[in-house]
Design goal:
Blueprint: E1 8-11, E2 14-16, E3 23-24, E4 26-30, E5 33-38, H1 40-44, E6 52-55, E7 60-63, E8 65-70, H2 72-78, E9 82-83, H3 92-105, E10 112-117, H4 130-136, E11 142-146, E12 151-154, H5 156-161, E13 174-179, E14 182-189, H6 192-196, H7 204-219, E15 223-231, H8 237-248, E16 255-261, H9 268-273, E17 285-293, H10 324-337, E18 341-345, H11 348-364, E19 373-376, H12 382-390, E20 394-396, H13 399-413, H14 415-419, H15 424-430, H16 447-456, H17 473-480, H18 482-486, E21 505-508, H19 517-522, E22 526-531, E23 534-538
Parallel strand pairs: 1-6, 2-7, 8-15, 9-10, 10-11, 15-16, 16-17, 17-18, 18-19, 19-20
Antiparallel strand pairs: 1-4, 2-3, 4-5, 7-21, 11-12, 12-14, 13-14, 21-22, 22-23
Helix pairs in contact: 2-7, 7-8, 10-11, 13-16, 16-17
The protein binds zinc ion (ZN).
Zinc ion binds next to loops.
């Protein structure tokens, strides 16, 4: 039977279809899926009078990116917070100026929330003080979060709203910083919740706006699929409602796999009672795994390690969120209910607890092809990688952490241990499938920085950290596309550009296979993103009729 005429044909460039299939000259798309790929002469017969022809003009097209560990809704909400990132403000005066401008516009009593400052990058090399925030925003509670998300600064009205007084004790797992016995406003780790829980929660309508805003941002980088890695963590089931509403209104720009907040404060009991188990949904919006945190972060010295942190005593090995048996019981429960797991584990000790919990669950209730995941999965031994492979598990790492935090890792872990982190090569060799992702808004959603970090293992200061863990460009793109599809059970539909697959395509401004690696990071853009053959982003308007 002859093939139908294509709706859309891309030609006159290079199209990378995937790790196994390599490059073709042209691709034909029909009804949202790939109709055929091949030489330009082969595809020519599929061009009819109504076929739209896109001239790649030497550019590269690839399967659209799949960022399978990021936080879409928080990214969208953060985009309307006051931006005090180091890329925006370099001085304390500039930072305070931005807060003042926002407070001047706000009604008295309205919260002003800022995000992303980095005191190391500010001229004064310190956090803002609560009094400084009081001066620029005397009538508004203010809370600004450091780029890492682990600490933040509140002004006096915000402290008051959170019920924090000078005599308040440090909460379990957190601290209220004091200087000369007086609160500075700096809240660390769990102490942030005292303020975080009184910042008014967004309405479902505001969350729909946030989802759309963040989804458009993703599309502008060639991303067609994401996993939101902690749905329900802040606003419970309302977050699911916001996603469903966004989807029904056509305001969900990216295919979204929803990882449900697990644990005692999560939404899994409610979700399960409504039939929302892993894989429920369709190719735009689907229920994903259950998230359980087992430790903190390496940069914050809270990832649970077997060996102490640099310069620390014997007890300085990070924190475990739960007792081993609690993790084991939770995993057994969720596994028994049919969920995929997404266990946050960064230190080798935490990772061991995750692996053993899955091993136990699979022994008690064998379930083939469950694809349990370890999120981040930073620091692990070869033996642990073997166990992971044996259990059919996958890591969901952030190579971009090496770029953003690599120098910090050297200082807290020592260079040798830091260099073993995020072992993309060891994983690939062991046959596990790392789904390279960004954890945005922790790191930039920009996939080109992630790609750069994967192929160079360079930190932002240019230090090569663990060069033996480099992947080549094809392997790295595979980790950012096909592996993301695999860990979300979608590899039959996306991640490669074979006939029959969804026509999710990114057209890049340059050929990342042939350019200098430095140009990948600082001079590569996405020009067009297709999701199901339709443009979800079109930088130059070339897809317009
Ligand atoms: Zn995350």
């Amino acid at each position: 039977m002859p093939l139908p005429k294509a709706d859309l044909v891309l030609r006159n460039g290079r199209i990378w279809c995937g790790l196994d299939s390599g490059f073709v000259e042209s691709i034909a798309i029909w009804r949202g899926r790939v109709l055929a790929t091949g030489k330009e002469s082969e595809i020519a017969s599929l061009i009819g009078p109504a076929t739209r022809k896109v001239d790649l003009a030497g550019r590269l097209a690839i399967p659209a990116f799949n960022d399978n560990h990021m936080h879409l809704l928080p990214l969208g909400m953060s985009m309307v917070e006051v931006d005090v990132r180091a890329t925006e403000v370099r001085t304390m005066e500039a930072l305070l100026g931005r807060i003042k401008a926002a407070a001047d516009k706000a009604a008295p009593g309205e919260w002003v929330v800022g995000r992303g400052y980095d005191h190391f990058e500010l001229d004064l090399k310190r956090h803002p003080l609560r009094e400084e925030l009081d001066l620029v925003a005397p009538h508004n509670p203010v809370y600004i979060k450091r780029t890492c998300g682990h600490v933040g600064v509140a002004n006096s009205l915000a402290l008051q709203a959170g019920g924090i007084v000078e005599e308040s004790p440090n909460p379990q797992g957190g601290a209220l910083e004091r200087q000369n016995g007086r609160l500075t406003g700096l809240l660390m780790e769990t102490a942030q919740r005292l303020v975080g829980t009184v910042i008014p929660k967004p309405s479902v309508a505001a969350m729909v706006d946030g989802i759309q805003r963040a989804g458009q941002e993703c599309a502008s980088y060639g991303i067609a699929s994401v996993m939101d890695a902690n749905v329900g963590a802040r606003c419970g089931m309302d977050e699911i409602a916001a996603y469903e509403t966004a989807r029904r209104l056509g305001r969900l720009p990216v295919r979204t796999y929803m990882c449900l907040a697990g644990g005692p404060a999560g939404i899994v009991e409610t979700a399960y009672a409504r039939g929302l188990v892993t894989k429920a949904g369709d190719d735009m919006l689907k229920i994903g795994p259950v998230k359980v945190f087992t430790d903190g972060s390496a940069g914050g010295r809270t990832a649970a390690m077997f060996e102490p942190y640099e310069g620390g005593d014997d007890h300085d090995k990070g924190i475990l969120v739960y007792k081993d048996e609690d993790v084991r019981d939770m995993v057994l429960d969720y596994h028994g209910k049919g969920y995929q797991m997404a266990l946050h584990g960064i230190g080798d000790h935490a990772i061991q607890i995750c692996l053993d919990a899955v091993e136990n669950a699979q022994a008690r209730i064998p379930a083939a092809d469950r694809r349990h995941r370890i999120e981040h999965c930073g620091f692990m031994s070869d033996q642990q990688i073997d166990q992971m492979a044996r259990l059919g598990m996958s890591p969901a790492p952030q190579p971009i952490f090496m770029y953003d935090f690599g120098d910090l890792y050297i200082s807290v872990l020592g260079e040798e241990r830091a260099a073993t982190g995020y072992p993309m090569r060891r994983w690939t060799s062991a046959g596990v499938r790392p789904a390279a992702s960004t954890d945005s808004p922790v790191c930039s959603i920009n996939p080109f920085v992630n790609l750069y970090a994967t192929v160079t293992r360079k930190t932002s200061r240019g230090t090569v950290l663990g060069g033996q863990e480099r992947l080549d460009v094809a392997e790295a793109l595979h980790a950012m596309t096909a592996n993301g599809a695999y860990v979300s059970f979608c590899e039959a539909d996306k991640g490669t550009l074979a006939p029959g697959m969804l026509a999710d395509v990114a057209i890049l401004s340059r050929d990342v296979f042939t350019c200098d690696p430095e140009a990948i990071r600082h001079d590569t853009r996405c020009d067009v993103t297709l999701r199901g053959g339709v443009a979800s982003f079109d930088r130059h308007g070339e897809m317009a009729a």
